[in-house]
Amino acid sequence: MLSRSAEGLYWMGRYLERTGFICRLLQLQAEALVDRPARDIHAGWRRLYASIGREPPGGDLGDAESDDFTLADSYTLAGDLTFERSNPDSVWNCFAQSRENARQMRHCVSAEVWQRLNLAYLRIRDMDEPDIWAESPEKFYAGMTAEVAAIEGAASATIYRDEGWRFLALGRALERAQSSCALLLAQTEIDEEAGTADADTDWGCLLKALHALEPYQLRYGVAVEPGAALDLIVTDPLLPGSLARLFDALEGETEALAAGPAADAGAAARRAAGRLSALVKHHWPDSGDRLALLRAASDQSLELHGLLASAYFAYAA
Fold it and tell me: Model-level pTM greater than 0.85?
């Protein structure tokens, strides 16, 4: 297929997945404002900003023990991550970019996917922060998360399984893997600085954000133990968002792609996807430094993105 089409579908998948990821975290933050202490709210904002690699407005989140995290401060931070047009990772921008890529690739996506994506975009196109805080911000974020899930469900049910589908699936899986790695690294950094006093609360929130809380409770019980939570998120092959499952999906989709014009880069991408899968299957169980493995997974995911771009989107003519 045309490289322009492949790239458009790849980024459509990435932006759509990023929208859902940020909305899930923002929904948890909005819910925490009701009854959680300032320390938990601080950790949540810090984890969220670290996971997308963005500095918060003003460059500092302040002191977790102070009363800085009032409703007004959360209003500002949520606005920066939701409707700020100058923030490329805001919910509004990510969803608009996903819709724009779909618009340009109308010939590659089903009518059901385009219709859902376009209608959702038209609903939020002219919205701003006061519109969602006037009623319930968590309701808006939950609605956006459900909308993204419905669009992805429509894509899974209706899009023809040609190479276009594979690039869409690659974008979604790689974005989710990179986001999960960044979120886990941010949480482990918080743990190292703050100790274990609030680790169970933090990891419970993180499990919920990654749709892993119920599987964790079924396996380990109600009490959250950070090491067990990390193992589940990384290694469980039955958890849809586990790194093991995402890396396997990346390896499978990359192997299924045709060699492409830049055959060397394509072969390198397949090897990089295989290394990611082996990282969890063969290195994680015996590793004494799991933080280093998470960093390696994050770096190798970024490398895989670059190789895919070189092989299929931006190869030399």
Answer: yes
The secondary structure of residue 117, as a DSSP letter, is H
Collect all residues with Cβ–Cβ distance below 8 Å to 67 and sequence separation of at least 6. 38
Q: What is the pLDDT of residues 33-51, one digit of tens each?
A: 888 888 888 888 989 999 9
In sequence order, the 6+-apart residues with CB closer than 8 A to the CB of 87 are 54, 80, 81, 93
- Two structure tokens written together for 202: 């933090």
> How far, in Å, CA of 298 to CA of 270, rounded?
17
Q: What value, to the nearest 5°, has the Cα angle with vertex 175 and ends 113 and 31?
A: 85
Residues contacting residue 43 through CB under 8 Å, at least 6 positions apart = 64, 190, 194, 198, 202
Q: What is residue 197's DSSP assignment?
A: T
Which amino acid is located at 282 in the chain? H
| Whole-number Cα distances in Å, 83 to 96, 165, 181 | 11, 29, 25
Give CA torsion, residues 28, 201, 178, 7, to 10 deg.
-10
> CA 219 from chain center: how many Å?
24
Domain ranges within the chain, ordered by starting residue: 1-160, 162-317
Residue 192: CB atoms within 10 A of its CB come to 9
Which pLDDT does position 10 carry in this prediction? 97
Q: Tens digit of pLDDT for each residue in 1-25?
A: 889 999 999 999 999 999 999 999 9
* Interacting residues of 73 by C-beta distance below 8 A, sequence separation 6+: 62
Tens-place pLDDT, residues 216-275: 999 999 999 999 999 999 999 999 999 999 999 999 999 999 877 888 889 999 999 999
Q: What is the mean pLDDT of the chain?
A: 91
Helices (H) and strands (E) in the chain, counts: 14, 0
Distances (CA, A) of 306 to 265, 268, 300: 9, 10, 10
